[in-house]
Amino acid sequence: CNAEYHGETSRTMHCRGEEHLKALNSRAKESVLWAHCESHHDSQMMSFTMKSTGYFKEPLTRQINEAVRIYHTKDTMNRKGEWRKTAVPRATYSRE
Fold first, then answer.
1. Of 90, 50, 93, 55, whose CA–CA distance to 71 is shortest?
2. DSSP states of 4-15 as a string?
3. Inter-residue contact 3 to 75 (CB < 8 Å)
4. What number of other Cβ atoms are within 10 A of residue 83's Cβ?
5. Alpha-carbon distance 23 to 40, whole Å?
6. Which residues have C-beta within 8 Å of that of residue 67, sequence separation ≥ 6?
7. Mapped to the 3 state alphabet, what secondary structure does 28-58 carry?
8. By the 8 A CB rule, do 68 and 88 touch?
9. Which pLDDT score, from 0 to 100, does residue 95 have?
């Protein structure tokens, strides 16, 4: 399975990863990992890996990076409600 979930957090990866694992193991309905197991793997518990894609000084930069990564992911586990309108607007200016 090549599905990916992209998330951003201001906390440590360990802390956020533990939350995801707890939700997965309890089969919580709000768990994106468990929802993926249910919908794509006949409710079989799957194993997942987690890796850092970057560290950011400003929250906005981190959130834009997440939005761009979700936008370019073909098989995403991110729910549309989480996307917060991930398309990044393009800004242009003209001289007058």
1. 90
2. B-----SS-HHH
3. yes
4. 15
5. 18
6. 83, 84, 86, 87, 88
7. CCCCHHHHHHHHHCCCCCCCCCCCCCCCCCC
8. yes
9. 77
The pLDDT of residue 83: 52
Which residues does 43 contact at the CB level (< 8 Å), separation at least 6?
A: 37
**Quick one: pLDDT at residue 87?**
57
Those residues whose C-beta lies under 8 Å from the C-beta of residue 82, and which sit 6 or more positions away, are 32
Residue 4's DSSP bridge partners are 76
Residue 19 structure tokens: 């939350």
Q: Please name which of 28, 14, 16, 15 lies closest in space to residue 6, comparing C-alpha atoms.
A: 16
Mean pLDDT per 10-residue run, the chain (96 residues)?
Answer: 90 94 96 95 95 91 90 88 56 71
The confidence score (pLDDT) of residue 25 equals 96
